[in-house]
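Need a sequence for this fold. Nothing fancy.
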């Protein structure tokens, strides 16, 4: 059990955040050269989807994302496929567990292209205002802005955006959420993992 100040236990949400941070370090950071959707090239990749489909990871993500989404008064959460599907599901499930959120909040996801058959919908699930858009990793925010535009086109107003990790890449690419004055928050920032990543990269260079 973690003890911060001598004789004082770390608050439960801080313990869960630390547990998720350690799980991301263990399973959610891939060290290889990749090109991101924003066209930025990087020697590491945040693979939050892998964490989201790990049982403990799904519970932790659901808990911590729900806390952030609740700051915007969310009654439904969702985002663009595929990054938002698993984490939106985690949030919806967590919201039903202890009665703090009534019967729970709803979830949805946005297709990159509408289906060409059936109901031909672009937005799947249940969009209930107030709406919060969620995503796994924020780099430029372009895909999130696209999700917001899809919701706006259907007559919904988005209260805010919550992401698992903000890569803090504004030196390499504009942050479109800031540029469009869209409120957003993140469970983690790249700076939370930067010392760990830099040490790993140094070790890899020495091998």
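Here you go.
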């Amino acid at each position: 059990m973690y003890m911060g100040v001598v004789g004082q236990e770390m608050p439960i949400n801080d313990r869960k955040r630390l547990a998720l941070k350690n799980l991301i370090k263990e399973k959610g950071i891939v060290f290889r050269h990749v090109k991101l959707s924003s066209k930025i090239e990087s020697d590491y990749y945040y693979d939050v989807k892998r964490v989201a489909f790990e049982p403990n990871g799904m519970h932790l993500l659901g808990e911590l994302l729900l806390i952030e989404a609740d700051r915007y008064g969310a009654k439904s959460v969702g985002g663009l496929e595929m990054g938002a599907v698993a984490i939106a599901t985690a949030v919806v499930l967590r919201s039903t567990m202890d009665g703090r959120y009534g019967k729970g909040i709803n979830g949805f996801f946005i297709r990159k292209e509408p289906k060409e058959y059936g109901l031909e919908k672009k937005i799947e699930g249940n969009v209930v205002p107030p709406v919060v858009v969620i995503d796994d990793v924020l780099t430029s925010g372009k895909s999130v802005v696209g999700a917001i535009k899809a919701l706006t086109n259907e007559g919904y107003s988005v209260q805010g955006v919550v992401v698992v990790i903000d890569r803090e890449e504004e030196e390499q690419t504009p942050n479109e959420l800031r540029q469009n004055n869209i409120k957003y928050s993140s469970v983690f920032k790249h700076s939370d993992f930067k010392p760990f990543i830099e040490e790993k990269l140094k070790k890899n260079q020495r091998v």
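For context: The helical segments are 12-27, 48-52, 55-70, 85-94, 142-153, 176-179, 190-206.
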